[in-house]
Structure formats: C-alpha cells, structure tokens
C-alpha cells in the first residue's frame, strides 16, 4: 500500500485541501533569487473542501465559509502534508486559515 499513488483526496468535515504557492524565484525586475533569499510564502489555493463542521449539540453540519479556488493565508506551521498525483498538498483545519486573499487585478 505504501507504494500506491493517491489519485484523489477528499477532506472530511471542517478540513480543506490546499496547494501551497511557490515563492518567487525572480523579482519583477528580472533578478533571479537564490533559494535562501526567496521569501517563504504561507498562502495557497483551496483545492477541495470538506462537508462542514459537525455540531454535537444540534446534530447539524455547518457548511464551511471557504470554497474551491479561494486564495488563503495559512499559519506558519499549519497543516498535514499529503502527496496527491505527485503534488505536495496540505490538509488544514478551516480554523487554521488566517484569512482569504484578494489580489489586485492589473
């Protein structure tokens, strides 16, 4: 089983699957940055979302506020790494997401 490749991963409950964004290797001016100078980026894109958080008192599931395609900021040590189709992704609790990022469209 250890040699099998995970084809798809669907997070459960209040977890999300995030593809971390790679740090920039080149500045806007074209200067190539070495690995130790590249800024560590703690954000990524939501790939999959779980069904929601289960409330034991009411017995109901509260849907997540995040959706596929959202750009999110993560805590520095958030998530559990999982390899899906040779991509390293993170499984993160929704509570560990610091916020949703909106980019300036130029």
Write the layout of secondary structure elements.
Blueprint: E1 15-20, E2 43-49, E3 53-55, E4 60-62, E5 71-74, E6 80-84, E7 87-93, E8 97-101
Antiparallel strand pairs: 1-2, 1-7, 2-5, 3-4, 5-8, 6-7
Structural class label: mainly beta
What's the CATH C level?
Answer: Mainly Beta
- The string of secondary-structure elements, in order, is EEEEEEEE
CATH architecture: Roll
Total strands: the figure is 8
Low-confidence regions: none
Instruction: Tell me the number of helical segments per DSSP (H or I, 4 or more residues long).
Output: 0
Structural summary, described in words:
With 106 residues, the chain is an all-beta fold. The protein has a six-stranded antiparallel sheet with strand order 6-7-1-2-5-8, with no helix packed on it. It is built from no helices and eight strands. It has strands at 15-20, 43-49, 53-55, 60-62, 71-74, 80-84, 87-93, 97-101. It has a single domain (15-96), classed as GroES chaperonin (10 Kd Chaperonin, Protein Cpn10, Chain O), CATH 2.30.33.
């Amino acid at each position: 089983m250890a040699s099998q490749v995970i084809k798809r991963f669907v997070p459960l409950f209040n977890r999300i699957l995030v593809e971390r964004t790679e740090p920039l290797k080149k500045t806007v001016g074209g200067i190539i940055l070495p690995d130790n100078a590249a800024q560590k980026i703690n954000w990524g894109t939501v790939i999959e979302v779980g069904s929601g958080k289960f409330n034991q008192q009411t017995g109901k599931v509260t849907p997540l506020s995040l959706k596929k395609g959202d750009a999110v900021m993560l805590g520095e040590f958030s998530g559990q790494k999982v390899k899906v189709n040779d991509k390293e992704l993170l499984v993160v609790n929704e509570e560990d997401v610091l916020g949703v990022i909106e980019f300036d469209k130029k």
